[in-house]
Amino acid sequence: MKNRVVCYFSASQSEQPIVYQLIKNYDLVVNILKANINPQKEGYLVVELEGSKKNYEDGIGYLKNLGIELEPLSETVVWEEDICIQCGACASFCPTQALSIERESMMVSFDNCKCVVCGMCLDCCPTRAIKLYFEVPEAV
Ligand code: SF4
Ligand code: SF4
Asked: Quick one: 41 and 15 in the same domain?
């Protein structure tokens, strides 16, 4: 399984070699998507963890036992109409019609309410008009 989580850690937890342990002890692939640490050494890490279900759950258990707070990553897709060249490629990939072509005008439009953030459209756009944003509260 593969999942993205936000790990909030304190100054003492930031000293722990958590990425190393997740790889070595739980055989997880760890992809660091974003990291932030303040001068007090508190911060967060946005990681994608991939491995067997058991290893994933054991790895999450390891983080929780350290007292690290975990939250599922909130993601959203943004369509930048200004740089869209209306090529229509994205609409053919989108399984929910969130990106679709209006038949009469042949114009592409985006309906955020229909988007399930599957990511299918992200790589097909020649102008990078479709972007994935991570929503991480800056509370730490
Ligand atoms: S992320 Fe998936 S559902 Fe959302 S617009 Fe792209 S292809 Fe459609
Ligand atoms: S693939 Fe990109 S440029 Fe083409 S219609 Fe979709 S958003 Fe616009």
From this structure: yes
Assess whether the C-beta atom of 83 lies below 6 angstroms from ligand 1.
no
**Which ligand number lies closest to the CA of residue 94?**
1
Length of the chain: 140
Which domain does 86 fall in, by range? 79-130
Alpha carbons within 13 angstroms on the beta-carbon side of residue 119 total: 4
Pocket test for ligand 2, best of 79, 81, 100, 130 (most atoms within 8 A of CB): 130
pTM check: above 0.70: no
How does pLDDT run across 35-47, given as a tens digit for each residue? 888 888 888 998 9
Q: Of all atoms in ligand 1, which is nearest to the CA of residue 97?
A: 8
Q: Report yes or no on 137 lying in a domain.
A: no
**Closest C-alpha to ligand 1, atom 8:** 94
The mean pLDDT value for 81-90 works out to 96
How many structural domains is the chain composed of? Answer: 2
Domain containing residue 111: CATH number: 3.30.70.20
Model confidence at 138, pLDDT cuts 50, 70, 90, reads low
β-strand partners of 6: 46, 71
